[in-house]
């Protein structure tokens, strides 16, 4: 409990990133945790690595995003409580990223399009 509070205190939004690849170890830990949270929350959160296009749009530049080559797509089946579950389980995932030494920023507007993640017909990108 104390640990997660410390992670919450240390996390803040970052929009300019180092142009550095995320290590395989970190990817594996994060992917495993995302799979666990997807199961618990009935979600389809997808972590995309090494994909610069989504944050290379006019809106992303306007939002001052730089070197944002890795991101998490918040996806789930359409439901009245999808936003709440994305919020809760997504926050746990970004706190895990923080623990692993990765900064994050929530965005709903200042990003472009991406073909790197799947949003099947009954699903929704939040
Ligand atoms: C659901 C959601 C969507 C957001 N969308 C954007 C966005 O598109 N672009 C942006 O620059 N900040 C966006 N923000 C704001 C930042 O993620 C962040 O909450 C704000 O800058 C506060 O920073 P802090 O984390 O350092 O307190 C969004 C926040 C939330 C919760």
Short description:
By secondary structure, the protein is mainly alpha-helical. It is 40% helix and 10% strand.
Structural commentary:
The chain has 126 residues and is mainly α. It has one domain (2-120): 3-Layer(aba) Sandwich (NADH Oxidase). Helix content is 40%, strand content 10%. It contains 4 helices and 4 strands, in the order H-H-E-H-E-E-H-E. The protein has helices spanning 2-10, 24-41, 58-62, 82-99; strands spanning 46-48, 71-73, 75-77, 123-125. Flavin mononucleotide binds at residues 12-13, 63, 105-110.
Which keywords apply here?
single chain, 126 residues, mainly alpha, NADH Oxidase, two-stranded antiparallel sheet, 4 helices, 4 strands, binds flavin mononucleotide
The biggest beta sheet reads:
2 strands, antiparallel
CATH superfamily heading: NADH Oxidase
Query: Which of globular, elongated, flat, extended, rod-shaped describes the shape?
Result: globular
Number of strands: 4
Question: Could you say which structural class the secondary elements and strand pairing correspond to?
Answer: mainly alpha
Q: Hetero groups bound? A: flavin mononucleotide
Amount of beta strand: 5-15%
CATH topology: NADH Oxidase
User: What value does the average pLDDT take?
Assistant: 95
Radius of gyration: 14 Å
Provide the spatial order of strands within the biggest beta sheet: 1-2
- What is the terminal-to-terminal distance? 28 Å
Oligomer: single chain
> How many alpha or pi helices?
4
CATH level-two architecture: 3-Layer(aba) Sandwich
Stretches with pLDDT under 50, minimum 5 residues: none
- Share in helix: 25-40%
CATH class: Alpha Beta
